[in-house]
């Protein structure tokens, strides 16, 4: 994918300062501040209801903020000059139900001076056999892919992708990942929301975790997960973790989450591994799927936002 005509600029692709959005008596966004860098992929994560979609919709100009400052490519979100520079992929496609797949993409392309070739893009996203298929007859995953194609066809400088791989099968998901990687390589700024932690780890240069309308953590995936390793294994639920901790080297921590899944943290080396397995053997515990892993983005996410359903 060719690079868009992006002039060097000091300001970030998106800058949000003390953003507030209320719906009636409920506060969806509560003083949120974040920056998305130029030419980078920024992943915005959070539980359902955390304020992710409202934040993105304000940046796209579809909703008005109640307070705070939002700048997109240095301009207010509703600035007409942004329209040819920004691509948007919505959770709901916004496509007329009777519109044929190919017709819709060609129509969107006409709004841009140098659009990508619609046929090539449809082929790339596995939609070439559905050019004449009405939107309402596409599967959910096919509708997602068409929305992604419409978001990038104009060679934008900035793309907003709201849960771009929701409902996609593994092949389509990987095709989406490859396209996002090409956008980054071409210097396009990407802001995406996702519930897939592995997707954020794989794609994002910067991760922003929000909860209850506020940023609770941000940084690169490597910075958020750290270099700390963990010992993980499965066993019967309800092991006596206090007894296990007494046997482990000082500074270790152990938890069961979820039931029957155990995580030991600390200086994970030969001594800790030998002590843990010896304790299991003495207690008659079979430690299944024992492995040493680094902390994942999902671990960080759950530690910050909790494990309860919302």
Automatic annotation (TrEMBL):
The ABC transporter domain sits at 14-237
Its membrane topology: Peripheral membrane protein
Source organism, top-level taxon: Bacteria
Compartments in which it is found: Cell membrane
Q: Which UniProt keywords apply?
A: Antibiotic resistance, ATP-binding, Cell membrane, Membrane, Nucleotide-binding, Translocase, Transport
Query: Mind telling me which GO cellular component terms the entry cites?
Result: plasma membrane
Give the Gene3D superfamilies listed for this entry: P-loop containing nucleotide triphosphate hydrolases (3.40.50.300)
Asked whether the keyword Cytoplasm is assigned, the reply is no
Which named protein is this? ABC transporter ATP-binding protein
């Amino acid at each position: 994918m060719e690079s868009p005509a992006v002039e060097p600029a000091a300001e970030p692709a998106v800058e949000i300062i003390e953003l507030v959005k209320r719906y009636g008596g409920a506060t969806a966004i509560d003083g949120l501040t974040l920056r998305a860098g130029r030419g980078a992929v920024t992943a915005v994560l959070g539980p359902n209801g955390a304020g992710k979609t409202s934040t993105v919709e304000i940046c796209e100009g579809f909703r008005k903020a109640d307070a705070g400052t939002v700048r997109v490519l240095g301009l207010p979100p509703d600035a007409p000059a942004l329209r040819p520079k920004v691509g948007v992929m919505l959770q709901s496609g916004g496509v007329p139900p009777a519109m044929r797949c190919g017709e819709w993409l060609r129509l969107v392309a006409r709004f841009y001076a140098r659009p990508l070739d619609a046929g090539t893009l449809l082929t790339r996203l596995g939609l070439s056999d559905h050019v004449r298929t009405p939107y309402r007859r596409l599967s959910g995953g096919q509708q997602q892919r068409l929305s992604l194609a419409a978001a990038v066809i104009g060679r934008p400088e900035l793309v907003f992708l709201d849960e771009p791989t929701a409902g996609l099968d593994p092949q389509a998901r990987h095709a989406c990942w490859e396209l996002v990687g090409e956008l980054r390589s071409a210097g396009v700024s990407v802001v995406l929301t996702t519930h897939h932690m592995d997707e954020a780890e794989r794609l994002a240069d910067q991760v922003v975790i929000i909860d209850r309308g506020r940023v609770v953590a941000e940084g690169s995936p490597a910075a958020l997960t750290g270099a700390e390793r963990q010992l993980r294994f499965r066993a019967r639920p309800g092991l006596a973790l206090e007894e296990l901790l007494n046997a482990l080297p000082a500074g270790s921590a152990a938890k069961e989450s979820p039931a029957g899944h155990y995580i030991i943290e600390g200086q994970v080396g030969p001594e800790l591994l030998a002590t843990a397995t010896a304790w299991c053997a003495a207690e008659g515990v079979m430690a299944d799927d024992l492995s040493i892993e680094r902390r994942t983005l999902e671990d960080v996410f759950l530690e910050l936002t909790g494990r309860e359903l919302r």
